[in-house]
Amino acid sequence: MDSDDVIRGRVLSRREIVAIMGAGGAALLLGSPVPGRADSRRTPPCVVRPEMTEGPYFLDEHLDRSDIRTDPTDGLVSAGALLTLTFNVSRLTNACAPLPGAIVDVWQCDAAGVYSGVVDPLFNTVGKKFLRGYQVSDANGRVNFTTVYPGWYPQRTVHIHFKIRSPAAEKASWEFTSQLFFDDAFTDQVYERAPYKERGTRKLLNTDDGIYQRGGGSAMVLSVKESGTGYATTFDVAVQHA
Length: 242
Hints:
The radius of gyration is 18 Å and the shape is globular. The longest helix is centred in the first third of the chain and has 8 residues, at 14-21. The chain has one domain: Aromatic compound dioxygenase (Protocatechuate 3,4-Dioxygenase, subunit A), CATH 2.60.130.10. Strand 11 (225-227) and strand 12 (230-239) form a beta hairpin. Helix content is 10%, strand content 27%. It is mostly beta strands.
């Protein structure tokens, strides 16, 4: 499989964020609630995250859907452990607030390490559209995806790609691209079940993955919990755009 592209972006230091946001910014960096987020159950912190490489397999398929497991071309559902993935998207300027209307794309490999819609030395899935889709953030900056826990392939640690694009109403367009990772020990537990266990031991851990290491990947590790018959995780991200 082709390797991903060069790293883009980096983690901002506390001093840099304070300089962007003013003297009150440090409290937000340390995890105080996002002002104006209308959610009585949970008010996630405003957290700046590093931008990373898009990789070779982004396709703008215009798949507006929350459940990305099914391939709309043939109705087949990707096998794997159910994973509910929630994004809380904020905008970081001189303050921090939920970002409604943002387009959030997600794409990933299946349990066998295969991406849809591409030609690769190990597979050809041109025309397929499984495990791809986008959602538009609501008034709270939130989007939800139903997917499967991703599999592995030899050149990379376990990960999910995502891209956040500017709301359609904004005059100046922008995009933010990065990757999500998983705790290695937790992944080992998930991979003890079918269909992952049939593939044997994965080849690469987070500590051996160049994109994870050079791109500040520890800031992008998901906190995953068991939920019903599957797993659930929430990811908070603040993008810095005017």
